[in-house]
Design brief:
Length: 422
């Protein structure tokens, strides 16, 4: 499917007068419409709620939009909890799905009244000692082995550090019950960025059957099934995007088949989507500042892997549109690169694109989740601004760009940098 940016060259040229490139820009309209589709797809389940995975796009303005659409938040660190609290999420608006969790974070989550999702059986007593056992607790499941759908190997839970096997889940639930917990949830995340409408229904089938067995074996009341994240997006134009209505209906069928006959028809379904909620509704906008003709053809842009790490880290594909040349022939083969002194700092390798001139704006698609958030500061490169394209067409700054002062701020205890001119 052809990928069309949600902004035009003219819009970007105008925005860049106020906010120089590079910047991330998010599409409020797209975010809201998508959140509503998700909600509609699961409206058959009375207690359904999406807990947006904060790590994907930890920006308070984005969290507020999702809050208005009825979402909660999924946190896994102290600062994510703090950010969520500051945005007005509290109590059961927060799912704390962490692993290798420090005591202070369990304490903070308890103080906020958040749902706590335990990653390991040893965390039951750790939580008891450090923060106390809440009335409602979740446990994270890891089936081991490989996770297959038909003949496709989707991921490798046997190699993943998360969750616990079934026998430990049962023991954990028994122990939690002994310690006073009353309501229980089951969570699992078996594959990331799945581009198939079958992932959630397959996962749901596994977790629903597990819930029936655990209810018997541990004698506990299962109230929630958390399908977690993993519903992906079509980064490549050749991929068929997921259809959330079909996905929701697939989960409903499994629910009616497995949960309803087992007397678990009142169980609430939760999701913790990050990528699916935001990725397509954010783009990284960067300007071509150099072209270089050596053994290959290079376009140097003013963004780098600091602004979007996925290509460097995973070799991930991100589609690129040269703004204003949407319909031009893609007859030039380029490596599109940033300035880091690391050869993996390439947004695209051997990519066929329209001829690029210095000054052209490139729109790097699907950067709205796990994009800005993964940023780092290698080579002393600074993180960009984040902008919001609002529904009325205006643009709002939702995070300013880093400055050298921010970069050096952690030396504020020292005199060495006191004479730096910021
Ligand atoms: C990262 C993460 C998510 C979100 O994953 P996406 O691939 O962005 O949907 C949800 N839950 C947990 C526990 C995670 O670690």
């Amino acid at each position: 499917m052809k990928k069309t940016p949600f902004v035009t060259r003219e819009q970007i040229a105008e925005i860049a007068k106020t906010y120089p490139t590079p910047f991330h820009i998010y599409d409020e309209k797209g975010i809201r419409e998508n959140a509503r589709k998700l909600k509609a797809a699961f409206s058959w389940n009375k207690g359904f709620r999406e807990y947006f995975a904060v790590k994907a796009t930890p920006n308070p303005y984005i969290l507020k939009i999702l809050q208005e659409e009825g979402c909660g938040v999924d946190c896994s660190s102290m600062t994510e909890l703090m950010l969520s609290q500051a945005c007005g999420f509290g109590g059961t608006d927060i799912m704390f799905s962490s692993n290798d969790t420090p005591a202070e974070e369990f304490q903070k989550a308890r103080e906020l009244g958040a749902y706590i999702n335990l990653d390991d059986i040893t965390h039951v007593d750790f939580l008891r000692e450090e923060a106390g056992i809440p009335e409602t607790v979740f446990c994270r499941f890891n089936p081991g082995g490989v996770f297959q759908m038909g003949t496709d190997i989707m991921d490798n839970p046997g190699d993943a550090k998360y969750g616990m096997p079934e026998d430990q889940m049962i023991q954990a639930f028994r122990r939690l019950k002994e310690l006073g917990a009353k309501r229980f949830g089951i969570h699992s995340f078996l594959a990331s960025n799945t581009v198939t409408n079958d992932y959630y229904p397959t996962l749901a089938g596994i977790l629903f059957e597990l819930a029936v067995r655990i209810k018997e074996a541990a004698g506990v009341d299962i109230a929630f099934i958390n399908l977690s994240g993993g519903v992906g997006v079509a980064y490549h134009p050749d991929q068929e995007p997921n259809d959330i209505a079909i996905i929701g209906d697939g989960v409903r069928k499994k629910f009616e088949e497995i949960m309803v006959p087992a007397g678990l028809g009142e169980v609430s379904i939760f999701t913790e989507l990050g990528r699916f909620m935001l990725a397509p509704y954010g783009g990284l906008v960067t300007k071509a500042i150099h072209e270089k003709h050596i053994h290959k053809e290079y376009i140097g842009v003013d963004a780098c892997a600091v602004n979007l790490m996925r290509p460097a880290m995973y070799g991930a594909y991100h589609h690129i549109t040269v703004l204003g040349k949407e319909d031009g022939p893609c007859d030039c083969k380029y490596d599109v690169v940033g300035s880091l002194c690391e050869n993996n700092d390439k947004f695209a390798i051997d990519r066929m694109l329209p001829r690029i001139e210095k000054g052209d704006y490139l729109f790097i698609h699907d950067a709205g989740a796990h994009g800005f958030a993964m940023g780092y500061n290698y080579n002393g490169r600074l993180k960009s601004a984040e902008l919001l394209l609002k529904e009325d067409g205006s643009v709002e700054l939702i995070r300013r760009a880093e400055t050298a002062r921010d970069y050096f701020a952690t030396f504020d205890f020292s005199d060495i940098l006191k004479d730096v001119e910021w």
